[in-house]
Amino acid sequence: MNIFKSNQNCNTNMKKNLYNGNQKNNSTYLSKEKLEEISERFRSVREQHFSTQSELVERAETDNCKISKSSLSRYESGDTYISLEALIWICNNCHVSADYILFGTKHEESKIFNKALSRINKEGAQNICTFLELIIQALKEKFSI
Does the reported pTM lie above 0.70? Predict the structure, then answer.
């Protein structure tokens, strides 16, 4: 089952309700302005890490994340809600928090940490893991765990 097809149908119905004034509960749907803000932040993050939409789509495919170019275009133009799968993928691959994309919240500490993590090569990651294992072993011995 394609998650995006079902999300697109859901998103289309939600937007019809939103823009036709058929909202049953104002807290259920995003305002057009909020959706545009989210779309702008999503597009900005994508542009910082991928020069084109096609580049992001190809990269996502290599990670078995199915983001179509048409869906991506609709996300970035504010025509539809961003799927959870796309949001998670962009956060993980662009080292940005979902808080930032959804709410505009910037966490400088996590940004610095994520940037540092993204620069660690495989050997560095192995060294960090070895170091952490030694710390865990020492703590177990000290506290007889």
Answer: no
